[in-house]
Specification:
With about 350 residues, the chain is mostly helical. It folds into 3 domains: about 80 residues, membrane protein fhac (Ubiquitin-like (UB roll)), CATH 3.10.20.310; about 120 residues; about 100 residues, no CATH class. The protein has 14 helices and 7 strands. The longest helix is centred in the middle third of the chain and has 27 residues.
Length: about 350
């Protein structure tokens, strides 16, 4: 096991478990009728989750106008699976990833073993319901004592081997090694030395590397916000771009990080959110699982310059659509092709 957030397809597709789907939410759908995508999906809410993720994605990819699809199952809504269906439409913006690195380099075995021990302790923390973490030091320290002790080992290892961690993160061919490096490098004592490395990792071709980098960057953002003497800054641009990703974990993790990064309501950041990711925020704010919808809802409210209490009151009253309705009236201030690393994907001929 090498990741902190695990797609439930691997864990849930055991025949003995036969999990049922409680919620299906789409994202990236702008022009294609959802009914056509649901027909290609081949199942609906209340039915068991099928056993082949690849087969489902193959069917979706054949729908006219679809460039690529991605399914991700998460837990849980009333004991049932929450399934997210990502769609990359022809002509839509696309979060661009870099080419996989190719150097055959590896981390010291001590770092690899320390990370595996940490993951084991995280599993223990999940089982006992103690997953809270403190990010005020610029890196995660979990409330669960055994997990926290495992994390504290990273502080010494990162200080000693930061150059090795950086080299593996940027150049190593093994995605598992890069994922470990993305997490552990966040514990380096001088945070200003690693901001660029983690930002670079946000465009890694491997989903787990990006997830670990986002988590590390989110902790840096907390530190930068609380420490007036911090000698580094976390830029929001890449997180904003990730809101247009085909991958659900990119979108979800980026939205959570951006809630912290927009806490001061910097007008330029909110304008960039409006320009680059307004439609993505709207569809994410409508996700049926409230825990997943809340970060995008908060970001929409801040783009609209609504007071935090007004946002909270509307959410508590079940009136998020009133906020979304206001967002639907907004228009980006400039064309979304003019900024950043996203691009329009190539066209695929429609099927007859």
């Amino acid at each position: 096991m090498r990741i902190l957030i695990v797609s439930l397809f691997t864990a849930l597709l055991l025949p003995a478990q036969a999990p049922k789907v409680g919620v299906i939410d789409f994202y990236g759908v702008r022009k294609i009728p959802e009914s056509r995508l649901r027909k290609a999906l081949g199942f609906t809410e209340g039915q068991p989750l099928p056993g082949s993720k690849g087969d489902i994605e193959d069917r979706l990819d054949k729908v006219p106008g679809v460039i690529e699809s991605h399914l991700e199952a998460t837990c849980c809504e009333q004991g049932k699976v929450v399934l997210y269906v990502g769609i990359q439409e022809k002509g839509a913006t696309h979060f661009e990833l870099r080419t996989p690195p190719e150097e055959d380099i590896a981390l010291p075995q001590e770092i690899h073993d320390a990370y595996q021990e940490f993951l084991a302790r995280v599993n223990d923390a999940v089982h006992v319901g103690q997953t809270a973490e403190d990010l005020t030091n610029g890196h995660s320290l979990m409330a669960y004592p055994e997990a926290r002790a495992a994390q504290e080992k990273f502080i010494e290892l990162a200080a000693r081997d930061v150059k090795v961690l950086r080299n593996v993160l940027r150049n190593g061919s093994d995605p598992e090694q890069r994922a470990i490096a993305a997490y552990v490098i966040g514990y380096a004592p001088k945070k200003s030395d690693i901001v660029n490395d983690l930002q670079y990792a946000l465009t890694d071709p491997d989903e787990t590397v990006r997830s670990n980098a986002i988590r590390a960057m989110a902790a840096l953002a907390v530190k930068a916000r609380l420490d007036k003497h911090a000698d580094f800054k976390v830029e929001p641009t890449w997180f904003i771009e990730m809101l247009n990703s085909l991958i659900w974990t990119d979108r979800n993790n980026a939205a959570v990080a951006l809630v912290t990064l927009t806490d001061d309501r910097n007008p330029s950041v909110l304008d960039e959110l409006r320009e680059r990711a307004l439609q993505s925020l709207i569809e994410m704010a409508r996700w049926k699982k409230l825990e997943h919808a809340l970060p995008a809802y908060i970001l929409l409210g801040r783009v609209l310059n609504l007071p935090e209490k007004q946002l909270q009151d509307a959410w508590s009253a079940g009136q998020r659509e009133t906020v979304i309705a206001q967002a639907l009236k907004l228009k980006p201030k400039r064309n979304d092709d003019q900024i950043g690393p996203t691009k329009r994907v190539g066209e695929k001929a429609d099927e007859p």
